[in-house]
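Researcher: Quick one. two chains, 686 residues in total.
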Amino acid sequence: MSATTLSSWGQYPAFPQAARPCFWRSELSTNLKQLINQFGNTLAYGNGRSYGDSCLASSDHVLATRGLNRFIAADWQNGIIRAEAGVSLAELLQLSIPQGWFLPVTPGTQYVTLGGAVANDVHGKNHHVRGTFGCHVRCFELLRSDASAQICSPQDHSDLFNATIGGLGLTGIISWIELQLLPIQSSLIQSYSTRFNNLAEFFQLAAEHDSQHEYTVAWIDCLAQGKHLGRGIFIYGDHAETGELAVHHKAKLTVPLTPPISLINSMSLRAFNTVYFHKHPPSLQHALVSYEPFFYPLDAISHWNRIYGKSGFQQYQCVIPSASAEAAVHALLQEIAAVGSGSFLAVLKRCGDVPSPGLLSFPLPGVSLALDFPQLEPLNTTLFSRMDSIVRAAGGRLYPAKDAHMSANDFRHFYPKWSSLESLRDPGLCSRFWQRVTLA
Amino acid sequence: MKKIVIIGATSAIAIACARLWAAEQSEFFLVGRHQDKLQQTSADLVARGAQAAHSYVLDLIDFQQHAAMLTQALQTLGQIDVILIAHGTLPDQHQCEQDVHYALQEFNNNALSVLALLTPVANHMAQQGFGTIAVISSVAGDRGRGSNYLYGSAKAAVTTFCEGLRARMFKVGVHVLTIKPGFVATPMTADLNLPAKLTVSPEVVAKDIVQAIAKRKDVLYTPWFWAWIMKIIIHIPRGIFKKLKL
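Model:
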């Protein structure tokens, strides 16, 4: 609808995007050229799950590609699927699970599109064994405003292939993607969870379990201080070897409207975190659960981003190399706990050393920390700048898909290959993020 | 595993219905104007579980070709369990007022082509003695509005025709469903400023249609609240109605 505008998941920064929807691959090229002629540049917009400004066109006119939601070919013998870029991971799972195939890598929401998963080279709880999403992409078709459609793979147009994986949608419009899926015997997950009382215990648990399990992740209480600093719940799991192959559709909760102010503040957060930590028994817990609550707990509440109120929120996600990880995460948590901000959604995850083909892929061998902050100024600016110094000094980096604050200097330092991406960028495509960190 | 003919198969509502039937391993005969869109739709349905999805290129305005298309559909599928008639356009009312040729062409697209097609289809279905004829009309056909009366009158013709056809077909065991969607977010309505709270996705409408066919309903308002909205609208006295900006 012409009157509706689109925004990013964090609803910050607020640059409402006018959307031109595209429904057919054969109409992509015309739409792309018209938008560029009319507004100077544009950007593909999938399902709007990028947090910051990487999904916003610098012209504020996006090409909405969610209508490209067709499957093109499904080879259930070998688990190879070719589908349009607007197909969501949920739609793919709905089809592939009954056939015994799962996503080789999945982020924490199934509501991202395939195109978005490639453009941000997303990772998941099995990064330590399978790398990023881009590691499993066989090929895709890329449409540029200055060339005809090209099929890119590790063999053909490999420079564009590598630049597009994690390329933030800047190298062209991805029209379809061919993906290698992961075979499963069951849609159930053998899930285990255990409490840890501080950061050192997390690192012990990660070292112990990462080599043995497909999926590992930890929730942390970002407000715990002193000897409890970095306490949390460590979760690990594997696909069950027997059981049903079923797609689940649970009744959903929804946040029906955006409250004027954030429902998350230091008081509600401290209470919530303390209860959540202590509700979990100190001993190891085991459960056989469906894939949905294991991978996508937040998907059960639609529009959960609204709880942060009209000002929105920012997610801060960094990755720190192994050697400096424990000290740096400790320092980061101290900064956060001292301010008393942050959110219930704080995640710690060890990343592995499987290399991604992506030029600007985010993960590196080490530990990733992600948490949301209600948009409060000047609190976020001062806190983030202190956190950025810690990340910089530790040799880590920030995640463009989540970012709304990274400085141009930091970006160029974190991603020295940015200039290679800039040279392969489609001149008709530009995001507010890219403008901020490279052109400003 | 139904044998399904879809006319206007690349329309958003038709595609959403077809995807639901594809999951039940149905076999399709898809009719539309554009070869490439039909082919993309067909590949999508096969990937989603359809037994097969055959394409047939036809502009429904070409009445002479309806019989040949139907013959081909029967040769391909053997029988027709469901025929969904979903083709249509959204005319520019203002242009209809200025340009008789355009207005009649739009009336052809939305009314006469449906009536023409339903004639041989009904005869075949009567002979077959089972199955469903499902026709997408619109809530716009329930009352003539100043902003949209060319489209509305075309849909009124379709609705009335189907009501009569239902009475004839009922006696020979064939089910006729008249579908009246409200505001649906589709490529056809992409340029309209539809009220967000009343607008639904084609998937929501498709679920209702597939269910109404299974339950052999006569008339379907979708989503359900349009039945109530239209009950009120058809009871607004004419003296007041003509003053409204609807």
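Chain B touches chain A at residues 12, 36-37, 40-41, 43-44, 46-49, 185, 187, 189-194, 196, 199 (CB under 8 Å).
Researcher: Thanks, that's what I needed.
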